[in-house]
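Example record

The entry below shows one chain as it appears in the dataset: sequence first, then structure tokens.
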Amino acid sequence: MYKFGNILVCLDLTEMDESLIGYANFLVETFTPSSVTFIHVMDTYEIPEEILSESDDAEGRSLKDILLEEIKDKVDEYYKCFEQLKPGVVMEEGLTVEKIVKYAEKHKIDLALMGKKVGYVGEGGVVKKIIGLIPASVLLISETSPYKFEKIMVRTNFANPSVVAYKMATYIKGITGAAIEFHNVYKLPYNYFPEQSSAAVQKIRARLKPYMDKKYSKFVKKYSLPDSIPFDYSVDVKGDEAQSLYNYAVRNQVDLVVTGTRLKSHLANIIMDSTSEKLAGVEKNVSVLIVKDIKEFVGFFKALFE
């Protein structure tokens, strides 16, 4: 569960693919996974059969074959670890979200690597749907993400998802030597504290320290975690925990934000908690690893796809 054994890299035939393949090199070299697979889904759901048949080239190749060749050419050009680990290249046809999610379940994928498209066209709607459904942890990178894990921030809400995230962070630390710290965002009710100046927030933060330290001590004791892990907190007066986490990560040169997420089911729809979803947003260009408790997820997955 807490490993990068089987990695799935999701490509979409945009410039972001170059960044994803390059980052896959870093993951393969660092974590020596058992497999790495590059996948693209040709979403033909709304394309008439007549148009698909007319897309064949002079050699009689179908559109699917043409695109598969394009992906293989990209992998050949940018993937540099052939001697270390031969990659798989897969082309699926159908609904993007469904195909990727089912592929991950069937092949026991541990980590899905996806792009945030900070500088490219794309709003990430499909990405967010996949994150909510896929039975694997998801690493989201931008085209500017550095190839390193030196400083990891684990989001904590003093509950079990934080422990799941911490366990994954310790796996990464064990291989890379990265420093880990916990971070909590204290949500301050705006109605009671309308003053939002920097000085006022810092004053409130200082007053909160004994209370936050006590909560953190109870948290590590409850879950039998090391009490030596550094802990810090931010004060959120605008109702946006994700933005507070992002601001802290940028100020403190964090390479990776790791967050657990509690899955919620309503009318057979699975969604992430709102903070994890916002951290996945394209406007936040710090790499984010969303870690799932796969055992918790399996029941939801079977209910949806079986």
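Notes for this example: The domain at 6-305 is CATH 3.40.50.12370 (Rossmann fold). The chain has one domain: 6-305.
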